[in-house]
Amino acid sequence: MTGKSGHKQIKTMTVTSGKGGVGKTNMVASLAVAFSRAGKKVMILDADLGLSNIDVIFDLAPKYTIQHVLSGEKRLADVLVDGPYGIKILPASSGVQELTELDEFQRLRLLEEFEAYDSEIDLLLIDTGAGISGNVAFFCIAAQETIVVTSPEPTALTDAYALIKVLFTQYQERDFKILVNSARDSEDAFDVFRRLSLAAEKFLNLSLDYLGFIPLDDAITRAVRQQKAFIDIYPNCKAAENLRIVASKLLEDDGTDRIKGSLQLFLGNMLKKDTIAQN
């Protein structure tokens, strides 16, 4: 957001996955906490619009969701809820089939609401649904950073490649950061990345960036049961240590060549790409 005084540069990151169940939302929650602890003003957009998850991870019970914004019943500021460390969360709806694919009117409505929102943030984290739906593509192509979460499971690797292929061949996206979750160790994680990277290079002539890995850690499961971010309640676990390294890498990459200037322009880019895709 820019406030009323002018356009402030913000960083936009989409966290996505080709397959469900790889821990994508857990990564978003803990990354948001890590960024907030680093002094950043963070907003999470739960872009899994028909199946909310972020509010569950943070043990929140939002009264309103993005559905009320898209329908015109509520303003964006009325729907945002406060998470830990000052994190702002725009919650998704749960079990609302019509939100799984936003139409042009709904995207324009969302754009208008962000334009009217006058509080500043430094960083927007978008937690998409899994798979290769139109919603996933729209949020990926508009953000400065696209982080693809995968795991050593063969189907997760196959589906991650399928997602990258769609975003590259249909939307000309070329920048992907790969985060491997639930790896036994660094060698296991890099082997997952190597196989994905080789496929992308061979069949798409595309180079991928290795962001890092999060190891198998019982602390993550315990945190989920307690509805907390694992980096928050188990800050000394191995998963939290690695997550902090990943967060630092993302903050060090200022994305100067990809800055779109404001969240309004981020959403405007989404609309522009949609128009291109339809023509």
In short:
The protein is of the alpha/beta class and 279 residues long. The chain has twelve helices and eight strands. The protein is globular.
List keywords for this structure.
279 residues, eight-stranded mixed sheet, 8 strands, 46% helix, disordered N terminus
Q: How many E-type strands?
A: 8
Distance between the termini: 30 Å
In round numbers, the mean pLDDT is 86
CATH classification, class level: Alpha Beta
Q: Report strand %.
A: 15-25%
Question: Could you describe the 3D structure shown?
Answer:
By secondary structure, the chain is an alpha/beta fold. The chain has a single domain, classed as P-loop containing nucleotide triphosphate hydrolases (Rossmann fold, 3-Layer(aba) Sandwich), CATH 3.40.50.300. The protein is built from twelve helices and eight strands. Helix 6 crosses helix 12 (263-278) and helix 7 (154-171) packs parallel to helix 8. The longest helix has 19 residues, at 186-204. The radius of gyration is 18 Å and the shape is globular.
